[in-house]
């Protein structure tokens, strides 16, 4: 990947990987590397997307706001 811009061939590779996952029964995609959200968005697939960068940012904001982490159990 080129950090300065979206590389179309990389984007197409991810779109094809997602399509293969969908064909195998996937109903969602975790964009587990924080940069993948720069390549792939809702306009590229009908599957639900979980962008780790956005999820981390929301968790940090919630933490700063004093909200407990979603789904976390602490003793």
Automatic annotation (TrEMBL):
Report the PROSITE patterns cross-referenced here: ASP_GLU_RACEMASE_2
Any one GO molecular-function label of the UniProt entry: racemase and epimerase activity, acting on amino acids and derivatives
SUPFAM superfamilies attached to this UniProt entry: Aspartate/glutamate racemase (SSF53681)
Tree of life domain: Bacteria
Question: Can you say what this protein is called?
Answer: Aspartate/glutamate racemase family protein
Organism, by scientific name, is Bradyrhizobium quebecense
């Amino acid at each position: 990947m080129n950090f300065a811009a979206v590389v179309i061939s990389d984007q197409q590779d991810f779109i094809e990987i997602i399509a293969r996952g969908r064909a195998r029964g996937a109903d969602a995609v975790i964009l587990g590397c924080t940069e993948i959200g720069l390549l792939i968005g809702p306009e590229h697939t009908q599957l639900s997307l979980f962008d780790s960068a956005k999820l981390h940012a929301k968790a940090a904001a919630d933490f700063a706001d004093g909200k407990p982490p979603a789904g976390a159990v602490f003793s």
